[in-house]
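Hey, why these numbers?
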Amino acid sequence: MYGKAFAPEYQGALTTLSVNSSLTDVLTEGIDKLREAERSGHPAEAARCGLAVAEAYRRLGKVREADQAWKASYRTAREAGDTAAMAWALWSGGTLARQRGAFPLAWRLLGLAAELGEQAGDIVCRGYSLAGLAETGRIQGDYAAVGRLHEQLLAEARKRGEARHTVWALEGIAQMHRNTGDYDRAYTLFEEAAEIAERAEDTRGHAWALRGLADILSVRDKNTDKALELLSRAETGCRAMNLSSALAYNHKMQGNVLHRAGRHEQARQMYELALTEFRAMSEPRGEALARLGLAKTRARLDRTHAETIAELTALARSLEGSGLKHVQRLVTRAQEEFAREAEAVR
């Protein structure tokens, strides 16, 4: 049985904040409490309030501010001798590094966070940090390396009855099944994640689960209308909390659904919107996926095969050394598809 979702990154004087609190509200209150703790000479409290500030900045897509905030939180926690707070700050920094596509740094910071969390006896921080490592590997496309870790973390979350972490693990495993073609298994896992998130009032987790369900309904069942309906519901939740990254991925998925349905002009508009959003938050993975969708959509509207192949070649070149193996595979597949088409019309 799962209880109501909570946000362990909201600590100290901010524990009263809900997992569904608007990020702008979190940021405002976090800065207020941080300044108050600094004036009162309480570094441990300042470090924990600074964590919420860093996370709010990160999720709002304010990369530079988030980078400054997590580092300040870590320095303050170290000054206070608070190992657990140091671990949480490193988790935030590692998560930001993954979001920015700095995967080696993400591995290093999240690994350190897991070690410090364990030393401090903070099992939640340890779990979130290991989850961060698992997600980093999954995003890079190393499913074999992190699949078992996802399953281990799912079992631990279920045992603790922690809804939010259970939902995260289910969604990660579901995404791997979806990307390897097991749509039925992916749908079942996304469906369970959506049900748990809704009961636990986890708006963020619910929005991601709905996005996953919409993807399967589109690609497996060709049910465009239902997929767009679910994405519209998820978008409402993203906007309520100002979830910049989740909203951009939602728009990118709307582009995918519309493209598959042959509604290319609408798809182009959604991909362009998502691309602008990803670039604003310096999110290289999302940017690459939006560029890929845009290239494929333009090919069905007004681009020649030669122009499309050139665009895909430039995208492939930009991904060299990025570590985004799954995205690179998608781009290679698209290059092969359009090369065959070009050959067929010669």
Remarks:
- The chain has a mean pLDDT of 95.
